[in-house]
galactosylceramidase
Amino acid sequence: MGAIHRSRAITWLIVAIFSHLRANGHDYPIDDSVGLGPVFDGIGAISGGGATSRLLVSYPQSQREQVLDYLFKPNFGASLHTFKVEIGGDGQSTDGTEPSHMHSEDDENYQRGYEWYLMVQAKKRNPNIKLYGLPWAFPGWVGKGTQDPYKYPLITAKYITKWLMGARKYYNLTIDYVGIWNERPFNSNYIKELRKTLNENGLEKTKIVAADNHWNDIASAIQNDPELAAVVDIIGAHYPGTMSPKEASATGKPLWASEDYSTTDNKIGGGCFARIINQNYVNGNMSSTIAWNLVASYYNGLPYPNDGLMTANEPWSGHYEVASPIWLAAHTTQFAFPGWFYLKRGFGSGHLEKNGSFVTFIDPTKKKFAIVIEAMSHEHSQCIRPPLPQYSITNQVALFRLQGSLKNLVDKVTLWRTCLKFNGPSSLFERIGTIPVVNNVIELKIDVDCTYTITNTAGQRKGHYPNPPAGQEFPLPYHDDFDNYQIASEAKYFADQTGVFEIHNSNTPKHGRVMRQMVFNSPISWCTDAAQPISLIGNSDWKDITVQTDFLIEKGEGVLIAARIGFGGCNIAFTPGVVLRITIHGYFTLSEDLGGFLTIHSGKLLTPIGLNTWHTATLTVKGGMAAATFDHKPLFNNIFVGYSEGFAAIGAQSFIPVQFDNFSVRRS
Ligand SMILES: *[C@@H]1O[C@H](CO)[C@@H](O)[C@H](O)[C@H]1NC(C)=O
Ligand SMILES: *[C@@H]1O[C@H](CO)[C@@H](O)[C@H](O)[C@H]1NC(C)=O
Ligand SMILES: *[C@@H]1O[C@H](CO)[C@@H](O)[C@H](O)[C@H]1NC(C)=O
Ligand SMILES: *[C@@H]1O[C@H](CO)[C@@H](O)[C@H](O)[C@H]1NC(C)=O
């Protein structure tokens, strides 16, 4: 063989090896010439359902703004496309209650709670963000005491419409989507009434999502009722496990995972989110995934601790944690936008050969695109529900072959990567650099537990602030006279679990502003409200504390002061605790539960207390003993209580107006 022949042979050999390596990669056409898939409706998250952002609003301003930037600011962090909030309904909705804009039929107030603030902040950062409101509970008057929000559909439709009108009038916010009743049955007449009432009030553009529950019942109702089909814009289902039935697609409506994720915000939570964002489309035709919840800003002792995209539940220290789900959201949210299109399965989206998935988004001009690839292992991507069927996954090479509008469009693309490591530091949302597009093929080596985005767009950024202050325990002693708040706002750190406690002026000038219980009828519950309005504060592992407060009963039975309240949320009615009740008739009881069934001590006050007079009470727990004072005189001492731990709390005997002032907690 001559020299020339030999070099030719070597070239051939190299080409052969190269093509052999290439042949090991699996070929995936990325092709819009067969038509586009559904419109992408965005990735979002939920504040509320319930009270999940409660502690965020009490953060020092600089850290609060930083957290909001990580969530909402475009090209910075999670950069969410959709922000869904609870339409507060005065009832317990998972981690607390959120106030209604109408505690009673003749009451209207659009300053309550924190969802307005958060929506304004989200819009300020991203004017294109879509807003979505959904009720969990309703105030009792809506159902005229029936516990049924559909009994008087027009009343409920007007009540919900007023919330949307309030958003427009007081905050210049347009609510893009409104839902029916979270995870509860829907009612077709009500949905039609809601559409009519929205239209009559200039809200024709607000779309209706139904029914934030299961697929089948709403899909078949839509198929059997053309009038219903005409008023439901989107079918939203919860925790679909990436699947939807044929009946849902057959309606022709966009399908959304309108609540999903709900997983601890550790690396597995990140893996869960990456997998469902892609596979909700690939397996279930869904065009939007909305995470519960936006940010875990509720006490760890409440249900579903840390089930946000990140955690910010220490307003006293300013500490927060930017968790991996923020960066796995960014892999889609910073690259593709509502109004872009998915490419069809088999033509840009689908499963990878060795498991995992990929999804291609293309903009309406067909000039910009992004391919999001996730290769999360089963072990590292389980969401808390539903169960994830077993699968295995291995490292693999993909060859994405650009065709249709994308053919000859680019000669290089940018690659971003997250690799979750379970025995060392992860790489989160790293810009790896550009990779060549050779003959319209993008070659990507895909490793297990990694997520990649390939794009021809620019502007993405891994936002960063200096580390927030270190974490700290809730500071004791703690005192609040409630004087430095706006009317109708909520006192910092208190987490209402039944009823709603707001700041109002006292009718006694000496007391200035006070915290007042504002719900006077049982709400239409979402889960279970206690019979006693109650607001928790502090730490679920407090043992030896003294809780002190001034109180005034405007009408009704009496007040509660408590320590060692074991839990809140939908089990609040059944929580253990050490609970002192003082009634206007001049009696007191001490019980070891909120319900008052486990009474361990009772007696008569030295003086009756009457209505509209201020009094002071303290409850001290230390080891196995409880003691109390009333108007600074001992009420009892050394009453044996079980060893337990929990929050401090104040509350009322029933749904009555009571006021609190000069609240304090100290170690005993
Ligand atoms: C209200 O919001 C719209 C955008 O939704 C904006 O164009 C308009 O300027 C805002 N109006 C005021 C008074 O802020
Ligand atoms: C998804 O939508 C496509 C096109 O509308 C349809 O052919 C397919 O059956 C749907 N898949 C499921 C799981 O419903
Ligand atoms: C993908 O997962 C399925 C389900 O576990 C399994 O049967 C299949 O072998 C996996 N494919 C590869 C290439 O590992
Ligand atoms: C609140 O308590 C402080 C002492 O802790 C007392 O000085 C003050 O007068 C009280 N305020 C009212 C309004 O009673």
Q: What stands out?
A: The pocket of 2-acetamido-2-deoxy-beta-D-glucopyranose (ligand 3) is lined by residues 354-355, 390-394 (CB under 6 Å). The domain at 37-312 is CATH 3.20.20.80 (TIM Barrel). The longest helix spans residues 3-24.
